[in-house]
UniProtKB/TrEMBL annotation:
Top-level taxon of origin: Bacteria
InterPro entries with a match to the protein in the record: PAPS_reduct_dom (IPR002500), Rossmann-like_a/b/a_fold (IPR014729), Sulfate_adenylyltrnsfr_sub2 (IPR050128)
Organism field: Streptomyces sp. SID7499
Alphabetical list of Pfam families matching this protein: PAPS_reduct
SUPFAM superfamilies: Adenine nucleotide alpha hydrolases-like
GO molecular function, one term: catalytic activity
Domain Phosphoadenosine phosphosulphate reductase: from-to ranges: 2-83
Protein name: Phosphoadenosine phosphosulfate reductase family protein
Protein backbone atom coordinates (compact mmCIF):
# COMPACT_ATOMS: atom_id res chain seq x y z
CA UNK A 1 0.00 0.00 0.00
CA UNK A 2 2.77 2.44 0.92
CA UNK A 3 4.70 1.60 -2.26
CA UNK A 4 1.59 2.34 -4.33
CA UNK A 5 1.05 5.60 -2.44
CA UNK A 6 4.65 6.69 -2.96
CA UNK A 7 4.62 5.78 -6.67
CA UNK A 8 1.39 7.72 -7.16
CA UNK A 9 2.80 10.78 -5.41
CA UNK A 10 5.94 10.66 -7.55
CA UNK A 11 4.06 9.98 -10.80
CA UNK A 12 1.72 12.95 -10.37
CA UNK A 13 4.17 15.32 -8.68
CA UNK A 14 2.07 15.58 -5.53
CA UNK A 15 3.12 16.79 -2.09
CA UNK A 16 2.64 14.17 0.60
CA UNK A 17 2.16 15.02 4.26
CA UNK A 18 2.03 12.13 6.73
CA UNK A 19 0.66 12.55 10.25
CA UNK A 20 1.97 9.74 12.43
CA UNK A 21 0.23 8.33 15.49
CA UNK A 22 3.56 6.82 16.59
CA UNK A 23 5.24 10.24 16.51
CA UNK A 24 2.48 11.63 18.73
CA UNK A 25 2.89 8.74 21.16
CA UNK A 26 6.68 9.17 21.20
CA UNK A 27 6.26 12.91 21.88
CA UNK A 28 3.84 12.23 24.74
CA UNK A 29 0.90 13.85 22.95
CA UNK A 30 -1.06 10.58 22.87
CA UNK A 31 -1.07 7.44 24.98
CA UNK A 32 -1.46 3.86 23.79
CA UNK A 33 -4.86 2.40 24.58
CA UNK A 34 -5.09 -0.64 26.85
CA UNK A 35 -6.86 -2.59 24.10
CA UNK A 36 -4.01 -1.88 21.65
CA UNK A 37 -6.14 -0.33 18.92
CA UNK A 38 -4.90 2.88 17.37
CA UNK A 39 -7.92 3.69 15.22
CA UNK A 40 -9.40 6.24 17.67
CA UNK A 41 -5.97 7.85 18.09
CA UNK A 42 -5.73 8.77 14.41
CA UNK A 43 -8.12 11.70 14.75
CA UNK A 44 -5.72 14.00 16.63
CA UNK A 45 -2.75 13.84 14.22
CA UNK A 46 -5.08 14.05 11.22
CA UNK A 47 -7.05 17.09 12.37
CA UNK A 48 -3.91 18.87 13.58
CA UNK A 49 -2.20 18.27 10.22
CA UNK A 50 -5.24 19.63 8.37
CA UNK A 51 -5.23 22.76 10.54
CA UNK A 52 -1.45 23.22 10.44
CA UNK A 53 -1.22 22.97 6.65
CA UNK A 54 -4.57 24.71 6.06
CA UNK A 55 -5.77 22.04 3.64
CA UNK A 56 -9.05 22.58 1.85
CA UNK A 57 -9.35 18.87 1.09
CA UNK A 58 -7.63 15.62 2.03
CA UNK A 59 -7.64 12.10 0.66
CA UNK A 60 -7.83 9.21 3.07
CA UNK A 61 -8.74 5.59 3.07
CA UNK A 62 -10.84 3.43 5.29
CA UNK A 63 -12.05 -0.09 4.77
CA UNK A 64 -15.81 -0.34 4.89
CA UNK A 65 -15.64 -3.96 5.98
CA UNK A 66 -13.56 -3.17 9.08
CA UNK A 67 -15.93 -0.78 10.77
CA UNK A 68 -19.74 -0.67 10.65
CA UNK A 69 -19.78 3.12 10.85
CA UNK A 70 -17.84 3.35 7.58
CA UNK A 71 -20.52 1.45 5.69
CA UNK A 72 -22.48 4.74 5.54
CA UNK A 73 -19.55 6.66 4.08
CA UNK A 74 -19.72 8.00 0.57
CA UNK A 75 -17.05 8.54 -2.03
CA UNK A 76 -16.71 12.08 -0.68
CA UNK A 77 -17.25 12.57 3.02
CA UNK A 78 -17.60 16.27 3.77
CA UNK A 79 -16.72 17.37 7.30
CA UNK A 80 -17.32 20.57 9.23
CA UNK A 81 -14.65 22.74 10.84
CA UNK A 82 -14.60 20.34 13.82
CA UNK A 83 -13.97 17.29 11.57
CA UNK A 84 -17.48 16.02 12.24
CA UNK A 85 -19.54 14.27 9.61
CA UNK A 86 -23.29 14.62 9.23
CA UNK A 87 -24.62 11.85 7.01
Amino acid sequence: VLDYRDRTVKKHGLRLHVASVQEYIDAGKLRERPDGTRNPLQTVPLTEAIQQHRFDAVFGGGRRDEEKARAKERVFSLRDEFSQWDP
